[in-house]
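Pipeline run #58 for the internal structure catalog. This entry was flagged by the ingest filter as a single-chain record with no existing model, so it goes straight to prediction. Upstream metadata was stripped on purpose; only the residue string is passed forward. Reviewer on rotation: M.T. Logging verbosity set to normal.
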Amino acid sequence: MDSKEPCVILSTSGMLTGGNSVEYFKMLCEDEKNSIIFVGY
């Protein structure tokens, strides 16, 4: 996650209750340039 290039990350479902999505959120949430999109069922 050190790249400065734009990218798209598709992660597991679960609405941040566990898995990779939690770790990605922790890494990306504090930078206002990032977007996190939740999709419904």
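catalog note: The helical segments are 20-28.
catalog note: DSSP finds one helix and no strands in the chain.
status: ready for reviewer M.T.
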